[in-house]
């Protein structure tokens, strides 16, 4: 909100103006004044009123020189030469100040709203919120990308995901569970989309006839979040603020979400000369990040949507607990959801037969003895189920 101190106003004098002008930037003040709607609209603030100051009190004075100016950090991202930029290292080394920018504050508010919408939608659909261990005796998924720690002179690991525990809850008779919690991945990936620690929104649920029932449920969850964020006045203002600093086109989605098989997705890339593969090489190709981005552009041009789903990935590209098609074991009953060519959800039908599970663990060359606590839960029967993980930061 814009505040005006005018020495022509009888309630103020030159001494007050001098005192205010000497206040360091980012000091905290209390203001007493009159709320006015100006004749000329204000473009620089979200609130279209201004306060004509009568009294001002300093509550907390800034005692250290600012590492950068907030007006510079609030400037629109641009590639123009000569534009003022605050580099990322400076921002991250002074995160407390960086989070005072309008865009960052709005991002945190939107993140909070997304989590609330996610939780409320699931709770309204009879889900149970769970809290799984994050300090483990073995890595979560039998993989190498786990942080190892010293746990009282024994090996300990930080959880890569709640995957095994989610399934054990299903095997305990919990039809629908979810968790919002941090996970840890020891991935030495120098990309903007891979983090060693992030917040994962995890879901696991049973189904009656086919795993695609759950895919459509996850789809309805996303559309609920999209709709609520774009119709609420507060969230619309937050999105506008973020786009003011990081310009982008409006996000688009369809009433009926396009669903492609992995094979169809690869063929689209081939048809648009983004990829050169022989027919027999398609199901052994692991789509790269660059190709995912290219596919997003193709889908946007052909289907006019930023949001779509890919199913039936090659089995060799998915984790050991992923169920495969009975008629073609080389293809899995799996799915990824994409926004603008970025994977935001990954999931699958899980193997619920204990014998198939043990067989697949061996096929992946994993030590079954380290997963006995998980395997044993399937020996007492298991409902057909599927699940997914969603990266909140993405």
Automatic annotation (TrEMBL):
A cellular component term, taken from the record's GO annotations: aminoacyl-tRNA synthetase multienzyme complex
UniProt xrefs under SUPFAM superfamilies: Class II aaRS and biotin synthetases, Nucleic acid-binding proteins
Keyword Signal on entry: no
InterPro entries: Aa-tRNA-synt_II (IPR004364), aa-tRNA-synth_II (IPR006195), aa-tRNA-synth_II/BPL/LPL (IPR045864), Asp-tRNA_synthase_2 (IPR004523), Asp/Asn-tRNA-synth_IIb (IPR002312), NA-bd_OB-fold (IPR012340)
Keyword check for DNA-binding: no
Species of origin: Plasmodium cynomolgi (strain B)
Pfam families xref list: tRNA-synt_2
GO molecular function: aspartate-tRNA ligase activity; ATP binding; RNA binding
Superkingdom of source: Eukaryota
Protein name: aspartate--tRNA ligase
Domain annotation Aminoacyl-transfer RNA synthetases class-II family profile: ranges: 110-394
EC number: 6.1.1.12
């Amino acid at each position: 909100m814009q505040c005006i101190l005018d020495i022509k106003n009888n309630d103020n004098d030159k001494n007050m103006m001098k005192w205010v002008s000497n206040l360091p930037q980012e000091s905290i003040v209390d203001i007493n004044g009159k709320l006015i709607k100006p004749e000329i609209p204000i473009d620089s603030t979200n609130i279209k009123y201004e306060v004509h100051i009568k009294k001002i009190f300093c509550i907390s004075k800034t005692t250290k020189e600012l590492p950068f100016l907030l007006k510079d950090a609030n400037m629109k991202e641009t590639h123009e030469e000569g534009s003022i930029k605050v580099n990322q290292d400076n921002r991250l080394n002074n995160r407390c100040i960086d989070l005072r920018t309008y865009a960052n504050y709005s991002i945190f508010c939107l993140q909070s709203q997304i989590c609330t919408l996610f939780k409320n939608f699931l709770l309204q659909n009879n889900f149970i919120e769970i809290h799984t261990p994050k300090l483990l005796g073995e890595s979560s998924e039998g993989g190498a990308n786990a942080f190892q720690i010293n746990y009282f002179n024994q090996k300990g690991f930080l959880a890569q995901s709640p995957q095994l525990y989610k399934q054990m809850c299903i095997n305990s008779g919990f039809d629908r569970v979810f968790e919002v919690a941090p996970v840890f991945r020891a991935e030495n990936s120098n990309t903007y989309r891979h983090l060693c620690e992030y917040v994962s929104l995890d879901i696991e649920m049973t189904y009656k006839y086919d795993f695609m029932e759950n895919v459509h449920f996850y789809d309805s969850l996303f559309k609920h979040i999209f709709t609520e964020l774009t119709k609420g006045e507060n969230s619309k203002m937050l999105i506008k603020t973020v786009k003011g600093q990081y310009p982008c086109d409006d996000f688009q989605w369809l009433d009926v979400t396009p669903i492609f098989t992995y094979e169809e997705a690869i063929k689209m890339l081939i048809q648009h000369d983004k990829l050169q593969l022989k027919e027999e090489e398609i199901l052994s190709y692991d789509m790269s990040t660059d190709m995912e981005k290219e596919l997003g552009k193709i889908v946007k041009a052909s289907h006019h949507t930023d949001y779509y789903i890919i199913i039936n990935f090659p089995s060799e590209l998915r984790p050991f607990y992923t169920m495969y098609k009975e008629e073609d074991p080389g293809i899995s009953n799996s799915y990824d959801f994409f926004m603008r060519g970025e994977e935001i959800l990954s999931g699958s039908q899980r193997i619920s037969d204990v014998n198939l599970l043990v067989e697949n663990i061996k096929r992946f060359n994993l030590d079954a003895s380290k997963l006995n606590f998980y395997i044993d839960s399937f020996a007492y029967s298991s409902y057909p189920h599927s699940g997914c993980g969603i990266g909140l930061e993405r």
